[in-house]
Amino acid sequence: MGAQIHSYLMSEDARGQANFYVESLGGEIQFLTTFGETPGTPKAMKDKVMHLALTVAGTNTLMISDSFEPVSYNRSISISLSYDDVSEANTAYAKLSEGGESKYPFAPQPWGAYYGEVVDKFGVTWMITKQ
Hints:
elongated; 2 helices; 131 residues; 2,3-Dihydroxybiphenyl 1,2-Dioxygenase, domain 1; Signal recognition particle alu RNA binding heterodimer, srp9/1; four-stranded mixed β-sheet; alpha/beta
């Protein structure tokens, strides 16, 4: 028996966050359902995203939903992206950094790989590597 792990982010702006990742990492939104598609949803909630799935940086799946509570990310969970090409990794790092915070510059490391860490403008920590 097997299973897959997918990152599922709660957001205060699911559409905006998804579009930022598509622009930063390449990809596209595959599926989007709003709460308004569910019978009985209050009018104030109808345009909120219930479930959004997108592919980024190739065929990686990332899922996002609007939250009805304030969202707070912390460093206990990070998303790691490993690239085969150093220029693609550097571009992803630079784009994810826009409006965010560089925690660790993307640079060659003593173990032979490139590594960098950034907290994007939505508060998500990304670990970018090139082996």
